[in-house]
Amino acid sequence: MSNFSLWLVLAGILLIAEITTGTFYLLMVSLGAAVGALMAYLGYGLEIQIAAAAVLAVAGSLLLRNRSINRSKTDKQHDVLDIGNKLQVTSWDANGRASVQYRGATWAAESIDNTPVTGLHQIVDVQGNILKVKSVSTHA
């Protein structure tokens, strides 16, 4: 079996494995193997085939990683959209926590005030699924 055929078989196996995982990283390695097959078809030596396959697989994986990091930053910006919104707190427990209704769901809230009071509050931070809130004075 020629190197060209071996690279194509490897690319196919990796592509099938990628379909079962859905991470796209094996897709990059599979594309690298396809480039290795192309290098073999063009008559380059085994070292060039391996180097070309490795460069494409590593570059593709780094590109996917950077894309994932940028997507995480975008998700964090969605949390920023909640900051400044107001909600009602009807009661606090002894630990300064409350369950509040916000955007149609029940959230945990923690007061940043020294003495939590009921009433209108403003979201100042979001940590996971916990809203950090401060009391908003209605006496202006």
Automatic annotation (TrEMBL):
Organism annotation: Limnobacter thiooxidans
Name of the protein in its database record: NfeD family protein
Keyword Membrane: yes
UniProt xrefs under Pfam families: NfeD (PF01957)
Keywords on record: Membrane, Transmembrane, Transmembrane helix
Cellular component, GO annotation: plasma membrane
UniProt cross-references to InterPro entries, sorted A to Z: Membrane_assoc_protease, NfeD-like_C
Transmembrane regions listed in the UniProt entry: 44-64
PANTHER family recorded: INNER MEMBRANE PROTEIN YBBJ
UniProt keyword Membrane, yes or no: yes
Residue ranges constituting the NfeD-like C-terminal domain according to the UniProt record: 82-134
